[in-house]
Design goal:
The chain is mainly alpha-helical. 76% of the residues lie in helices and 0% in strands. Helix 4 crosses helix 16.
């Protein structure tokens, strides 16, 4: 008897979006933005607007066409199986590249409490692998169990981050934002640079659309979770950055390796710094859990369509893609070990750039799919407003892709081309099966004559 696979409700879906967006990056971003001063808030707002336009595309599509696989399904329906496979392949690769980075970041934050994790690479990699396989086991048990962990981790990390964000009301210092632009570049270049830096923080807004077949009332819960998750994350990002810029002197913030912890320490004492470091560990753990869930769901959707190997399909009884989760986590483990080995650090960093590109490409195809559907349908003002929103999202995504850099763009194309032999092999296997089925039908007809 097959279990009920509708295991994700509104709050679990919202936690998936927030948990995947608020990972390890936000805890270091204020330091990266510090050189630009208060104008970085303008960069946050610029990126938030572009990301909101993109989120609205997913909201509208999930309301009208909820589909397992999210961006992959939209690309397949709009531009064919080859385009769908390319997106699914690239997105899948980006997931296990990103998960390796999150696992390493989690151990880095843990080293605040256990210095031996930093001093001993063997201890560090052991803890990272333990977290990877613990969460793989949880996701193999079922989506509901993974969703509970995600909801718990999201609440635990959101509360202190919201507290720091709300603290801007009490600690805001106008002098910290004068002059607005403290860099040596023009205001336009400063906004562009800070918007590019903040882009990574908004990736993951599509998370609720991927496990669509496992969501209760998907036409309602997915769009609500996407928009709610995005808005909560955006408020946390912008308000907490304003607090940190107000509290931590710019000269210290530029070189800070733990800006949230430093701000908490200055506002509330030494204990608060350690508490924020603990929250950073929880944040990474929650993000790793959320992306582990997605790394099983995305290839499962492609396997159900026959363009990924059948091993990635869900388990017959539970519907959980256990084999796909194990294969993906094995690849995550290899990357994690390579990072700790020391010889492939540069290559590992480069794969994270490719990971960003591999997420933006599905965004691009999803936006084009909605523009195509909207253009073909009849309608009045609503149609043109949807087209305008979609075109703004398209412009933002193209701008973001152009900012990746030529080297990463070429590498990303090469990465996606690596999947072509897999697609060719799956198509050939499909043709062979069709031929065998046709021969069997012909033989059966002859026997009945």
């Amino acid at each position: 008897m097959q279990k009920n696979t509708k295991q994700l409700g509104l709050w679990m879906c919202t936690a998936l979006v927030i948990g995947n967006m608020i990972g390890s990056g936000i805890f270091l971003l204020p330091s990266s933005l510090a050189a630009y001063g208060g104008i970085s808030i303008v960069g946050w707002l610029f990126t938030a607007f572009g990301a909101l336009m993109t989120a609205l595309v997913f909201v509208r599509l999930s309301r009208k066409h909820p589909a397992q696989g999210g961006p992959y399904a939209y690309t397949r329906d709009g531009f064919g199986r080859l385009a769908g496979f390319t997106v699914a392949w690239g997105y899948w690769v980006s997931l296990w590249c990103g998960n390796a980075a999150i696992a390493v970041a989690m151990v880095s934050y843990l080293s605040v409490f256990f210095p031996m994790l930093h001093a001993s690479p063997l201890s560090g990699v052991a803890v990272a692998l333990s977290a990877i396989w613990l969460l793989t086991a949880v996701n193999c048990i079922g989506l509901k169990e993974a969703g509970i962990i995600q909801l718990t981790a999201t609440v635990l990390k959101l509360v202190p981050l919201l507290v720091i964000g709300v603290a801007v009301v009490f600690y805001f210092d106008r002098a910290a934002f004068t002059p607005l632009n403290t860099s040596t570049v023009s205001n336009f270049d400063a906004v562009t640079a800070t918007a590019a830096l903040t882009l990574w923080a908004f990736l993951g807004l599509e998370s609720a659309t991927v496990p669509a077949d496992s969501v209760e009332n998907p036409t309602v819960n997915i769009p609500r979770a996407t928009l709610l998750g995005f808005l909560i994350a955006a408020v946390v990002y912008i308000s907490s950055t304003a607090t940190i810029l107000s509290v931590v002197p710019q000269t210290d913030l530029v070189s800070s390796s733990a800006p949230f912890a430093d701000a908490a320490r200055l506002m509330w004492g030494e204990w608060a710094g350690y508490f924020i470091a603990f929250i950073a560990v929880i944040s990474c753990f929650g993000a790793l859990n959320g992306w582990t869930l997605i790394q099983g769901q995305m290839p499962m959707a492609a396997a159900n369509d026959g363009i990924f190997p059948a091993i990635f399909k869900g388990h017959p009884e539970s519907g959980v893609p256990k084999a796909g989760l194990i294969i993906s986590s094995a690849l995550v483990s290899v990357l994690t070990i390579s990072n700790y080995a020391g010889g492939l650090v540069a290559l590992f960093t480069y794969t994270i750039l490719l990971s960003t590109l591999a997420v933006l490409v599905p965004y691009l195809f999803t936006i084009l799919y909605e523009l195509k559907l909207t253009w073909l349908r009849r309608g009045g003002l609503g149609k043109w407003l949807t087209l305008l929103s979609g075109l703004l999202a398209l412009a933002y995504t193209l701008w973001a892709i152009s900012g990746i850099g030529q080297e990463a763009l070429l590498g990303g194309v090469g990465l996606m081309l690596l999947g072509v032999p897999v697609y060719w092999w799956m198509q050939r296997a499909s043709v062979v099966k069709l031929g065998e089925a046709s021969e069997a039908n012909s033989a059966e007809v002859k026997l009945t004559q």
